Each structure stands twice: as structure tokens, then as C-alpha cells.
């Protein structure tokens, strides 16, 4: 029986700035039903507080201790390993790294830095990596869904730096098993009692599977027809988050 559910945010609870129909009602129903809910996001353009404020404005009653963000995990990784990172991150989350980002740099943190992902900045990052510093990636998503279409995410730039510096990035967000394990541990549930719902077949579904939990793909957000077939066995598929919940928890 499912006792805990992990939700991806963008593309599952909302698209752009619009909540997905029925999602808030479903979350509130689960909350009242005593389910353990966790929300995990690779969103690297907003601080944790901004994410929470936006969720509240869209009608989702979620608390800070239910929300796990990849930028927070990257920041904690740097603190735990006493690293001073050169940060190629979005301007909105720069303040979260201010206390850490001091030369001489002993790491590179890369996220969805948008226009700051210039040749010059990537070349500076390459130089730091070449001195033996680790590459820490907030996520390695290939693309994300904006209001209009799919856009390049940080993943392709992470790959470029991995290729040039001949090292593998430490991914702090999804699909990192460490990230999933941290969140799973907070539920106090056994793995067979936990369900992940996401719209990213690799980040959410494959990541959850590697962490040993069941996962369901939804046809909202960045989902593209056929995504479910990119995994073996194919990912279970639901129209949206409400249908996924009704399928796995029909009695609720
Ligand atoms: Mg998503």
C-alpha cells in the first residue's frame, strides 16, 4: 500500500505560472487523508522561499520541510565538503551562494544560469575544473517546458564541461540517487510504500526507479508522446497527477 508520495513540481502541479487542473484539490485531499507528501524539484531559477510562495499563491498548502530543492542540496554539498564554488547559477539563486562563492575557487556549481552561460564563463569554469576542482551540477535535465515550448536546460552545458574536463559531474538534484535517498529517508516508509509522480521520464521516473521506488509518468508538462517507451519496462502513464493518484490510491 502506498503511504508516501513524492511529487515533481513543474509540469506536475503547475505549468509556467498556472496550476494544473485538479492538482491542488488532489494534494489537499491526500494531506487530509494522512499521506506523507514530499515535493522535489530541480528548479534552479528560484529560491526555496520563492517556490513556496508561488505554490501557496496557486492554492497548494505545502510547508518548507516538505520541499526539497536541488539548489539547496548543492549549497549543502559545498558546505559539507568545505568548497568555495565558482557559481554559474541563475541570478535569482545567486544570493544563496554569496557566502560560499569566494576565490580561490575549489569547485564549480552549474545550474540554469541562462544568459550567464557564455563562452567566457564556461571557459573560466573549465580552467577551475582543470586544476582538479569537482563539477557540481544542480541538475542535468536536457530541457524544460516554458510557457510556450521546450527550452534548453543546464544538462547540455554540464555535458560540455564534463567532456572538456574529462570528469563526471556530481548531480545534487534529480536523478541523483543520493537526492532521492535523502528525501525517501524523511518519509520513514519502506520503499515499496512510496510512489513518485513526475513528467520527466529520465529525471523523475528513471531516477526514482534507480532509488528503488515505484514511479508514474504524467502526460502534462514536458511529456512528449512516446516518452514512456524510453525506459525498460515502459513507464506507467497517467493523464495527470489526479489520475495517477486515483490509480494508485483508489480507496482514498
Ligand atoms: Mg517536471
From TrEMBL:
User: What GO terms are given for molecular function?
Assistant: hydrolase activity
Pfam families in the cross-refs: Hydrolase_6 (PF13344), Hydrolase_like (PF13242)
Which keywords does UniProt give here?
Answer: Hydrolase, Magnesium, Metal-binding
Claim: Magnesium is one of the keywords in the record: yes
Q: Which cofactor does it need?
A: Mg(2+)
The parts of the chain that form a coiled coil are none
Gene3D superfamilies according to UniProt: HAD superfamily/HAD-like
Q: Does the keyword Hydrolase apply?
A: yes
**What family does the Swiss-Prot or TrEMBL record give for this protein?**
Belongs to the HAD-like hydrolase superfamily.
UniProt-recorded name of the protein: Haloacid dehalogenase-like hydrolase domain-containing protein 2
